[in-house]
Amino acid sequence: MHGGRTWPGLVEHAGERWAAFAVAGAEWALRAGQTDMLVHARAQLAAIDAETGE
After folding, report:
1. Taking Cα atoms as reference points, which of 31, 27, 26 lies closest to residue 43?
2. By C-alpha distance, which of 38, 20, 21 is closest to 29?
3. What is the pTM of this model?
4. Of 45, 52, 42, nearest to 18 (Cα)?
5. 35 in the Ramachandran plot: left (φ > 0), alpha (ψ -120 to 50) or beta?
6. What average pLDDT does range 1-26 have in this prediction?
7. Angle CA(52)–CA(47)–CA(7) in degrees, nearest 5?
8. How far apart, in whole angstroms, are the C-alpha atoms of residue 35 and residue 37?
């Protein structure tokens, strides 16, 4: 195998990190008053929600 070993929770771990990135973007957008970025962050979170069903 090229690329090393993975673990059973890798997909969930990656999804949680991706969601955390979107949340961090939303937090920054709220503090900075960046409406466009907030819309983008909300869309990212909605896509993650739709994909995971959570």
Report:
1. 26
2. 38
3. 0.69
4. 45
5. alpha
6. 87
7. 40
8. 5
